[in-house]
Amino acid sequence: MSSRTALRVSALLAGLALVVPGVTASAAPKPAMPKINWGSCGDTPALKPFQCATVKVPTDYDHPRGPTTTIALTRLPAGDPARRIGTLFTNPGGPGGPGVPFVQQLGQTAYSPQVRAQFDILGFDPRGVGQSDPATCYRTEAEEHKVLTSQPEFPVTRAEERSAIGWGVGVGLNCSARAGDKLAHMSTANVARDLDLLRQSVGDDKLTYFGYSYGTYLGATYAKLFPTKVRALVLDGTLNPAWYSGSDGDQRPFGVRIRQGDGAAEAFTQFKAECKMAGPARCSLAKLGDPSTVVENLFERLKTHPVVVTQPDGTTTTVTYQVAVFVAFQNLYDPAGWSNLADMYSQLVTSAKSKTAGVKAPAALIDWTKHREEYASLAQGMQPCIESPSTGRPLSYPAYADAADKAAPHFGRLRAWLSLPCEFLPIRDADAFKGPWPNQVKPPVLVIGTRYDPATPYQATRPYSDLFPDARMLTVEGFGHTALFKSSCADARITTYLTTLKAPADGTSCQQDYKPFTAAAAVAKETHENR
């Protein structure tokens, strides 16, 4: 999720009014349980510990014996088969986040040795995503990449806003024409139905699940549809289902409704405050004055005087106001990278004052640029388009963005435009579920919120917990998106819960293992990059 393309894919989201499911699948024949034939994941040495498979599931659960969709799976088998409890299903978020590479890249480090010993760690690409019959909006990767990079990260001027609306029309129509048949069955409810079939296929009587970010929306949906099939749920970085689905009556664009701009603006305020407390010795931005004042002045200057920087390969990148905000949003996900963000702003301020040509690209900007060629189709992150209401007023997006910018400077405008293409996508999944969200899950579930999460704001954590009869809310006092790799205290409580079903007391707090702008944060960043 750190790349420009991946963030666009995961967040170019909105929806048309969805159709609430009736008693559809229950009246139809039950779908056949797929048989999983695990095999090799290929010759790559890094994949040797893993097994891979594909299964077929019903494309439409109203017609369970009709056309099928392929689901790609991978698992890291339990290290101690004699003590094996079952399978830990995972979802890394998104929407549109593929679970296969998540487990293959992080499965050996994201979970404690005890969890890895007692569970098979399973990742799957949700329908329409990754290797699971992927939905695509354009004929080729090159064509879609060209479209994705043809606009600024978000519009600021009225001319840019008019151009963005025209761009959104084209994207919506292309996605509808090329991926409409897949999008019509890609709702989170259908992913939850797939998940329940997979649970049966691995032989687990009840589901053990770990969902991050959007994965908590999938968890809430599964809990509503299959409340008696839950063993344990760890839900980290919560999306309030009422905000996501629009079931609370909020008619603003999806990108505004989920309060992501609010969370990012609050986290950015903390970034500047932590830099100020760290001082000039540990935060380069503090050498130039009060970090908040310095950054605001830089942003204002970049609106009219962008800075051209030179990449290591000799190419150049123009750093506009929009790029500076977008790179900030990217780096707020992990406080281990805040020093690089401060260094980038310091270098931009210095170069702007000296009017130096050919400025060397800062590390944070190199990281952002590095991933610009990654390809993941817009269509793979469009679940909200077909299960969440749109505004029906695409020409009002400039006004929505202005209001969002006042409430959450810089980041409110950035996120407000994310749902625009879905205003022009005339597709709904009739089997989508949009509430009501209180469920009847009896076992305790573990709900985790990070105090200054830029993507899933902490304010959603308690309302999300209250949807469950026995949710235990754990707060990580710190920064970044989800608690993954950030708190050994939280990891210990997750391990105890998953392996013994003993959940911590509701209201438990944990500290992060490191503070921003410290030597420990630098070590954490290097560790993350080497995973």
Describe the structure.
- The chain has 531 residues and is an alpha/beta fold.
- The chain is 39% helix and 14% strand.
- The protein has 20 helices and 13 strands.
- The strands form two sheets. It has a ten-stranded mixed beta sheet with strand order 1-2-3-5-4-6-7-11-12-13, with helices on both faces.
- Helix 18 (461-465) links the parallel strand 11 and strand 12.
- The model is unreliable at 1-26 (pLDDT under 50).
Task: Summarize this structure as a short list of keywords or feature phrases.
531 residues; alpha/beta; 10-stranded mixed beta sheet; 13 strands; 39% helix; 14% strand; disordered N terminus
Distance between the termini: 15 Å
Per DSSP E runs of 2 or more residues, the count of β-strands stands at 13
- Outline the biggest β-sheet: 10 strands, mixed
Question: How helical, in percent, are the residues?
Answer: 25-40%
